[in-house]
Amino acid sequence: MNAIERRERIVELIITSDEPVSGNMLSKKLNVSRQIIVQDIALLKASGYDILSTNRGYIINNTAMHTRVFKVRHTNDQTEDELNLMVDIGGTVEDVFVWHRVYGRIRASLNISSRRHVQQCIEGLVSGKSTALMNITSGYHYHTVKADSEETLDLIEKALADKGYLAPEI
Predict the structure, then answer these.
(1) What letter would DSSP give residue 108?
(2) Model pTM score
């Protein structure tokens, strides 16, 4: 398990627990030192997770955020417009993922919440250093988007549909 997978697992363990999750339990479950857990928690907080440290363990305060996954399809040239559309309405694009027929789900964390973040992402793609994941699945891909309300997510969904970016669920 690499560091990114470990942090995803930490979030999953905390979210699915009915009570605070201690650092000791996380370190034992993930077979790493308590120091590594502390560093991972700090990185998760920096990437936008509202993780609270209590005297009984870690909890994630996710009551203020709502999340939805959008299946979309567009060209490489429309990527900037698609991302700007979501952040302008008030969303944070947490990730992008594709379902590959051989490899399964391939996911990349984004945490894009502003036009500046969008521009940094696009610069990385345009520079030729990387290619968009959607290119391996004929343009089809998914974004996990979080926002302060279901209404904001509804507005994002409508805007994606109006632009023709929303792909039909099959």
Answers:
(1) E
(2) 0.63
